[in-house]
Design brief:
The complex is a heterodimer of chains A (410) and B (247). Chain A is of the alpha+beta class and 410 residues long. Chain A folds into 2 domains: 184 residues, no CATH class; 197 residues, no CATH class. In chain A, strands 3-4-11-6-8-7 form a 6-stranded mixed β-barrel. The longest helix of chain A has 44 residues. Chain B is built from 7 helices and 10 strands. Chain B has a 6-stranded mixed β-sheet with strand order 6-7-8-3-9-10, sandwiched between helices. The two termini of chain B are 28 Å apart. Chain B has one domain: P-loop containing nucleotide triphosphate hydrolases (Rossmann fold, 3-Layer(aba) Sandwich). By secondary structure, chain B is of the alpha/beta class. In chain B, a hairpin with a 2-residue loop joins strand 4 and strand 5. Classes of the chains: A alpha+beta (410), B alpha/beta (247). Chains A and B meet through helix 1, helix 12, helix 13 and helix 15 of A and helix 2 and helix 3 of B. The complex binds adenosine-5'-triphosphate and magnesium ion (MG). The site of adenosine-5'-triphosphate has 13 residues of chain B, from strand 2 and helix 1.
Chain lengths: 410, 247
Amino acid sequence: MNPSETIQVAWKSLTSNKSRSLLTMLGVIIGVAAVIVMMAVSAGTEATIAESINGLGSNLIFISSNMTRMGPGQASAGSGGLVYDDLEAIRSQISGISGATVDQQTSVTVKYDKVNLDSISLVGVTTDYLDVRDMEIDEGRWLTDRDNEQAAKVVVLGSTLAEELFGDADPIGQAISANNTKLTVVGLLKERGLVSGTDFDYQMYTPINLVIKKFTFSMFARIQGDSVRMIYVAVDENANMDDVILQTTLLLARRHDVTVDSADFTISTQDDIIQTQASTTASFRTLLSWVAGISLLVGGIGIMNIMLVSVTERTREIGLRQAVGATPGDIQSQFLIEALMLSLLGGFLGVVAGVGGAMLFGKFGNMRTVILPYSIVLSFCSAALVGIVFGYLPAQKAARLDPIVALRHD
Amino acid sequence: MSETIIETIDLKKVYGMGETEVLALDGVSLHIESGEFVAIMGPSGSGKSTLLNLLACLDTPSDGHYLLAGEDVSDMSRAELAQVRNRKLGFVFQSYNLLPRLSALENVILPMMYQREERIPLHERNNLGMAALEQVGLTNRADHLPKQLSGGQQQRVAIARALINEPILILADEPTGNLDSRSSFEIIELLNHMHDRGRTIVMVTHEPDIAHYTQRILTIRDGKLDADRKNGQRPAVPVLQEQEGVL
Ligand SMILES: Nc1ncnc2c1ncn2[C@@H]1O[C@H](COP(=O)(O)OP(=O)(O)OP(=O)(O)O)[C@@H](O)[C@H]1O
Ligand SMILES: [Mg+2]
C-alpha cells in the first residue's frame, strides 16, 4: 500500500462520518485556538505595557521612598525616606543631570461652577517637571520658581480635565476649588496621553510647596517635615546614566545616614521597570501555556478514545483488509494516518479559530492582541504530535487483531 | 500436467491451553492438484473451518506442514502470510464481508491496493475491476453500495473480488450458507464456471446439494480426514436459464 493510497483510505473513512470526526477534532481545535488566543492576549498586554513604560523616557531615573511601604511605626528618625531637601541636594550636587523634580500626588475633590469631580489627582511639582516629563504648555503659562517659593495657589490643568471642568469656556484666570482651597488656573497643558497607567491629561499640577502646606493631612508626614514620595531625575544626553545613579545613591545614603544596602529609597530606570514587567508577564505567559498545553492533551485523549471505538467498530473491516493482503504495518499506518489527519485538520481549524478569535478579541473585546507567528507554528506542531502519540495505541490495537477473530466479529 | 497446489503433512491445530485445550485438527494430510474443485464436508464442529483457515493462510498450524504451490508457509510471519494471501489466494466468506462504505467496484479492486510487487497502476485497476464484475454479471451495479445489493449479488461481488488478483487458489467457507436456494445455485454455478476456466477451488459446505456440484468431496470428522471420494457426473444447474445478467 503506498502512502497516497493510505491517505485516501484514511480521508474516506474520516469523511464518511463527518460529525464524529468533527467532534473528535473539537478538543484539538479548542486546544490550538486556546494557545493562539492566550499567547496573543498576553503578547498584546506585554506590548501595551512596554509601550507605556517606554513613554516614561529612557533618560529618566526614578527615586522612590521606601518609607511608604514600611509604614509609620517602623520608620525611625533619619531613615524616613525622601524629603523635599533631597531634591535641592541632587540638583546642586549631582553633575550630568538636566533636571530633577518631585511628583507628589494627592487625591482631591475639584469644583468649578456646577461641575464637581471626585478623586482628581493633584500633583505637586517643581518647575523642572515640564521638561523632565516631556510636556508642553498649550495656553497660559507653566509654574515658576516664584510660585513654588511662595506656595502660590495656582494650578495648571491637563487637557481632558480642563475640558471636563470648563467645556468650551476659557479656563485661564478662572478659580477652581480643590478640597475647598481656591486655586487660580494659570495654564493648560498639551495632550500627553496615557503613560504607564497614568493619564497625564486628567491631572492638575501645582507647586509642591503648596501641596506640602495645604494638601498633606497625615500628621506623620508633617512631623517628618517635607516628605516626598517620588523624585524624577532627567540625565543629560551626554552624561553616563550609571554614573549619575551611583552619585545619587551615595549622596542620598549619606544624607539619610544609611548604608546603600539598607537604603530607605529605591532608584530605578525605565529598563528596570520594563524588566520587572517582562518577568511578571513571562510567568503569566508560562501559566497560560500550561493551560493551553493541558487542553491540547485533553484533545489528544479525545482522539485516542474515538479511535479506540472506531477500531472496535471496524474490526470486521480490519479482518477483511488483512485477509486480502494488508500487513499489520499497513493497518497500523492506516489508523496512525487517520489520527494524524484528525489532529492536523483539527490543528488547522484551531489555527483559523484562534487567529479569528484573537482578532475578534482585539476588535471588540477592549483588549489588545498580538498574534505571534511562533504560537501558530508551536500549536500546530503540538497538535500533530498529539495525533501521533495518541493515535499510536489504537493503531497498535488494530494491527494486532487476528484476522480470523476480526472476520468473525459482529 | 497438473501441479500440486495444496500439500498438507499431518496438519494439527490446537486451540486454547491446558484444561480448555481443543484439538480442532488432528493430523490432516492431503493433496489438491491445480484445477480441482473440492468440497469439504462434515458435521458441525468437526474442524472444517479450522482446516480452511489454515489452507487460507489466515492461521498457522500448531504442528505439521502446509506447502502452498510448493512453498512451505507453516512458519511464516503475519506480514509474509498477508502477502501470500494477497498474491496467491482469493476468499469467499459466508457473510460476504464487503466493506460497507465502498462501492461494488471499489470492493472488487480492494486487494490490488495491498500488492507489493508488480503493482497495477490505478487507472488500470478500474478496468480490471469492471472485467471481474462482468464475469459475475454485475457491471450495471458497479457504483452500488453493498447495502443496495441483494445477498446473492453481494456474494457475486465477493467472488469478483476473490478473482481480481488472479489467485492460484480460491477458498470459500460456506459461500451459500446465508443464501436462499435460488441464489445458492447462482453462486455455485459461478464457481463452476470459474472451475471450467481452470481455477482451483476449495469450498466448505454442509449442504450435500451444493457439494454435489464438485468433483471431489473430503469429509472431516473429529479433526481427521474421514473420507476422500471422487464425485461423479455433476448435475446440470436448474433455474438459471431465465437468470438475466449471469453468465
Ligand atoms: N478460536 C477457537 N478457540 C477455541 N476453540 C475453537 C476455536 N475455533 C474453533 N474452535 C473449536 O474447534 C473445533 C472445530 O471448529 P470449526 O470452526 O473448525 O468447526 P466447523 O467444522 O467449521 O463447524 P461448523 O460446521 O459449525 O462451522 C470446534 O470444537 C470449535 O469449538
Ligand atoms: Mg465452520
